[in-house]
Amino acid sequence: MSTDIRPRIRIPQGIQRGDVIEIKTMISHPMESGQRKDDGGRIIPRMIVNRMTVTLNGRQVFEARLEPAVSANPYVSFFLKCTQSGRLDFTWTDDNGGLYKASRDLTVA
Amino acid sequence: MKDTAMSEPLHLARREHGLSRRQAVAAIGTACIFAPAAAEATPDTARRLLSELVKVAPKAGKVRIDIPEIAENGNSVPIAVAVDSPMTPTDHVRAIHIISERNPLPGVASFLLGPDNGKAEVHLRMRLAESQTVIAVAELSDGSAWVATREVKVTIGGCN
Predict the structure, then answer these.
(1) Structural domain tally of chain B?
(2) What is the ipTM of this complex?
(3) Where are the beta strands (DSSP E) in chain B?
(4) Residue B74 at interface with chain A, using a CB cutoff of 8 Å
(5) Domain range for residue B127?
(6) What is the CATH number for A58?
(7) For labeling, which of A85, B96, B127, B128 is most exposed (least CB within 10 Å)?
(8) Out of B109, B113, B128, whose CB is closest to A66?
(9) What's the gap in Å between the CA of A3 and the closest CA on chain B?
């Protein structure tokens, strides 16, 4: 299943120094809530992305802690004040210890 | 927009439409079976979680929740929470928490922010098991906490 889990990130183009930009993220993941039952009446174990972190040049700029009430394929967007170019690293962690990473270059004119 | 202070009752009359909801869900062919009612969040458990997350009593104001008044599909409801803050090193939002009153569990998400964000606003898509009140709380760098609530009517509940 892990091969199905793919992060997507959208960052605006043409960023000027001092701009506050919205960074949109989504990762394909079932976010199994642990509340549902299968046909045999057994509870399907919880398996969610429980944490997402974003660093800029190694320094954390955003963290989201997610609960089962977050929809499947969790979409999270946040804002960033762009004072320098650098590398954005995105990490998602799930209940099974799965670690999903993506990186983007942030280019500030 | 209706903001309610935590001192006022957050209670939203419980809608007795469990059966029709289940029928509706079955009708669209989704295998959606809810856990025992004992696991459900209530305004009380939501308040308890809030007091665990935020140590001071939140005041009404500064926080804005943007969520549809009527959500047709409780599996995916877009929500935005914005906080009135300059987001400077000395005056910024440290955290935003989203809490539900009528999902199986009260917690939805917490976001850790700082001056790097420039703007205290987050967007998410959340599940709503039924019509209820959604609560958003912001913790500021000065130690104060601010809260907003919004009622949402849900046509088809999300499978939490």
Answers:
(1) 1
(2) 0.94
(3) 59-60, 63-66, 70-73, 77-83, 93-100, 107-112, 121-126, 132-140, 145-156
(4) no
(5) 18-156
(6) 2.60.40.10
(7) A85
(8) B109
(9) 23
